[in-house]
Amino acid sequence: MKKIDDRFIIKTFYNKFKIDELFEKDMSDDIKLLRFEKNEYLCREGEELEYFLFLVEGKAKVFKTLPNGKSSLLSFYNSLGVIGDLEFINEEVASGTLQALSTCNCLAIPMDIARVKLINDCKFLRFSCLRLAEKLADISTSSSINLLYPLENRLASYINELMIEPNSEIEYVDFDESLSGVAENLGSSYRHLLRTLNLLIEKNILDKDKLGYKVIDKNKLADLAGDLYKAVYFE
């Protein structure tokens, strides 16, 4: 994580997402800009959050550790993803782990300041309640996806989301988190994941070379993926 002390960039993000409309009072002087590089953790499950975060640029995935020690994918975050709403209200440690899939810029309010200045801010509390309701719906949807959809569809959707810009020329799918990690996130065995990857190769959706897995038919991938893990933008 790196702190970016550039008030112009902070103000640009602040205005773009109309952050001032989330509060009854001006919070601009308390806003910081934090940058997380790819694969860095924006927060880790079980750790205290130092900041209340608004993800204003980039993409991240959120997953939770299950009682058996394995991790389960919950959703993907884009702008304007909110990190710390539950922890802000309950004053608890982070309830899940959020990992950057690309460079992520976050507007941040120190949590101790947020808990003092925003605990009675009706506009901000309403915003937080709406986002908590959306996250509850995401968890319910995630559970249904793992139960009702074949791994082929879930994997296609996962890969589709890993392609940060699906319409760009970048086609390599980065599995540097390890295939075992992907299998765990999707509630699959490692062998089942390999079989499913080979199935996508047979369908001419993926190809494999020394650099990894490459998407060779984005349209087929998108059709197979549907909207299972589709991240929502709130711009």
UniProtKB/TrEMBL annotation:
It comes from the Bacteria. Pfam families: cNMP_binding (PF00027). Residues 19-109 form the Cyclic nucleotide-binding domain. InterPro entries: cNMP-bd_dom, cNMP-bd_dom_sf, RmlC-like_jellyroll, WH_DNA-bd_sf. This is Catabolite gene activator protein. It comes from Paraclostridium benzoelyticum.
